[in-house]
Amino acid sequence: MRLILKYISIFVLLFALIIISSTKEDIITDRDPVILEGTEFKALINIQGGIFLKSGHPVGFHFDLLNRFSEHQRCIIKIKPVTDCNPWEELALGRVDIVVADAGRDTIPDDYSHLFISSLELNEFEQVWVVTKENYNLLQNMNYWFGYFQNSKDYRTLVNNYYRTYTRVNFTGGAVSKLSPYDSIIKSYSSSIGWDWRLLASLIYQESKFSMGAKSGRGAYGLMQIRSATAKQFGIENIYDPEQNIKAGTLMIKRLLNLYKSDDIDSVNRIKFALAAYNAGEGRVDDIRRLAEHKGANPNNWDSTKMIITHMKNSEKIPDGILKLGNFKGTETLKFVEEVLDRYENYKVLVR
User: Fold this and answer.
1) For residue range 300-309, what is the model confidence (pLDDT) as tens digits?
2) Chain centroid to CA 255: how far?
3) Are residues 159 and 215 in the same domain?
4) Domain containing residue 105
5) How remote is the C-alpha of 155 from its chain's centroid?
6) Is residue 152 located within the same domain as residue 191?
7) Are 43 and 203 spatial neighbours (Cβ–Cβ below 8 Å)?
8) Cα–Cα distance measured from residue 88 to residue 66, given in angstroms and rounded to the nearest whole number
């Protein structure tokens, strides 16, 4: 009997320790039902901001928040960028289940107001998640989770990460410790290409100003402005996801660095040519190098190549076969490389 009581006591003690060590978010109770488990949803983030540092990074904030909600509810949320579609039409037709929008009187257009309902506002940010009225159970779970999560330490950390003041680094400012909400990802992937993370950060700022919602008229998306074809080439499924976007970008850089790996090109020029090719494409860089060689400059030295292009007159006749991809002057690419490297020099001095 004593032995049985001993084992019972041990069992009770172990059970109590498990309960104590569990976090509130991990415990499923009658008050906290996970009725969405296993369900798949699609979401669009239809909010402005994030291009200028002073406005924070609301797109990234809601991307992260949607993923936190899906983890808690044990459901799947596939988040897509708003491209040329009408997000409200997509929601009305059932092509998406959640639209993240700025709150206010005109949040939902009048034509759709009878179809949709919105969540509680997210504290001071005045943004809401909108669903159809048929999806009321989803809304209830959102509101319950918002009420809980907004009082947690994780939420405060999330807000600080995306809405803290990220000062533009220059020589007139003081030292900073963080450049963006994505520093940890940038540091992780910069090591795979042997770059100082601040150089990769400078390239990302040049492409998107650290806005994961950035898109170009040429069909490029995200932090490193990746096209779907490029993502497919490297086996990347979701270029909207910040980590996958940076992974695709660094895989592209790695390929370009290998392309310019030569005994005739030193490590500094190798980086410069890779940056130029990232901006303009390797075919354009080949054009620039052929033109430099035609002018008697060293095609393996970026600065020599730059001088040729800088001083070339618009009216100058270039022999056939030198520029295979048309009359490419390269001035935009020269500016791109210069600005990325100049910013990197600032980062090296002021970013710890």
Assistant:
1) 999 998 888 7
2) 21
3) no
4) 40-163
5) 19
6) no
7) no
8) 18
Residue 59's alpha-carbon distances to 10, 138, 200, 204, 303, in angstroms, are 49, 21, 21, 16, 38
What is the rounded distance in angstroms from the CA atom of residue 240 to the CA atom of residue 219? 12
Cα-based distances in Å from 282 to 169, 242, 299, 313, 333: 30, 25, 14, 23, 12
Residue 143 sits in a domain whose CATH number is 3.40.190.10
pLDDT tens by residue, 222-261: 999 999 999 999 999 999 999 999 999 999 999 999 999 9
Fill in the amino acid letter for 62: H
Quick check: is 207 catalytic? yes
Span between the terminal Cα atoms of the chain, in Å: 64
CA-wise closest residue to 116 among 107, 126, 105: 107
Query: Among 142, 135, 90, 80, which Cα is nearest to 112's?
Result: 90
Q: Are residues 235 and 103 in the same domain?
A: no
How many angstroms separate the CA atoms of 317 and 242, rounded? 44
pTM listed for this prediction = 0.82
Total domain count for the chain?
A: 2
Same domain, 143 and 193: no
Within this chain, do residues 245 and 286 fall inside the same structural domain, yes or no?
yes
Catalytic residue among 37, 90, 207, 332: 207
CA 192 to CA 246: how far, in whole Å? 11
